[in-house]
Design brief:
By secondary structure, the chain is of the alpha+beta class. It has 2 domains: 2-108, no CATH class; 128-248, Glucose Permease (Domain IIA), CATH 2.70.70. It is 39% helix and 27% strand. The longest helix is centred in the N-terminal third of the chain and has 45 residues, at 2-46.
Length: 252
């Protein structure tokens, strides 16, 4: 009796194994059949497809279907959510890039405002008794020697009012050891004017904004290098610390 039961148990196990093997074989056959059908469909359609992109899309669809076998519904949902998030990030990135491009384009088209060079008037009426001479030497009655002259000397009586040659800002007021009491005014684009041999400069202060023809001092005789010359204003114009000939810049 016991042997009979034991034989039945063995038979049952063997039948179960055979059933499982049959199921596995059936699944493999089914998968191969599906693959063959997809392949045959792709081959038959390829001859009728004029656009290679359509064919590639069909192959891609087959590969996606094959890779999806064995995935759970949750896996598919996760992949869809991941793809949606990636698309949103891509769209946001493209939007930011477009915004930055628009800002850069706006900056590029902003007009550049150019400040015109200043124009100069004669700071005092009178004859020029000593010309500008930076390259050639002129004789100095005071020094009794030949020397350069980086400005012009405009003859005028003592205490004659000296005016600013152009709009600007008073840079300094000093007593120069060579040219006496001197007022220096800064103008736009690196220009600078200097008024020397003054009697006084009490009409302006350092840092003050002045306008053309505004009184800045009076003619004196404080320039030790020109003490023997007639009373005059020693006037200079510079551009970026380079001396210029004032007569070519003064507007009559």
């Amino acid at each position: 009796m016991k042997n009979k039961i034991k034989n039945i148990t063995y038979i049952t196990i063997i039948l179960t194994i055979l059933v499982v093997i049959s199921l596995i074989v059936g699944m493999i056959i089914n998968i191969n059949r599906m693959y063959s059908e997809y392949k045959e469909q792709a081959i038959s359609l390829k001859s009728n497809i004029s656009d290679q992109d359509d064919y590639n899309e069909l192959v891609d669809n087959y590969e996606e279907a094959s890779s999806a076998i064995g995935k759970t519904v949750e896996d598919v949902k996760n992949e869809e959510n991941l793809g949606a998030n990636t698309n949103e990030n891509t769209i946001q990135s493209e939007s930011n890039t477009k915004t930055e491009t628009k800002v850069e384009e706006k900056k590029e088209v902003e007009p550049i405002i150019e400040i015109p060079d200043p124009t100069f008037i004669k700071p005092i009426e009178g004859d020029i008794i000593k010309e500008y001479s930076k390259e050639n030497l002129v004789y100095s009655e005071t020094l009794k020697e030949w020397t350069t002259h980086t400005g012009i000397d405009i003859e005028a009586d003592l205490t004659t009012v000296v005016k600013a040659a152009s709009d600007g800002t008073v840079k300094s007021i000093k007593n120069d050891p060579r040219y006496g009491i001197t007022v220096i005014i800064e103008h736009s684009n690196g220009y600078e004017t200097r008024y020397s041999n003054l009697l006084t400069a009490e009409f302006v202060t350092i840092g003050e904004n002045v306008t053309a023809e505004q009184t800045i001092g009076t003619v004196g005789s404080t320039a030790s290098f020109e003490i023997l010359d007639k009373p005059h204003l020693h006037f200079e114009i510079l551009k970026d610390n380079e001396y210029l000939d004032p007569t070519t810049y003064i507007k009559e």
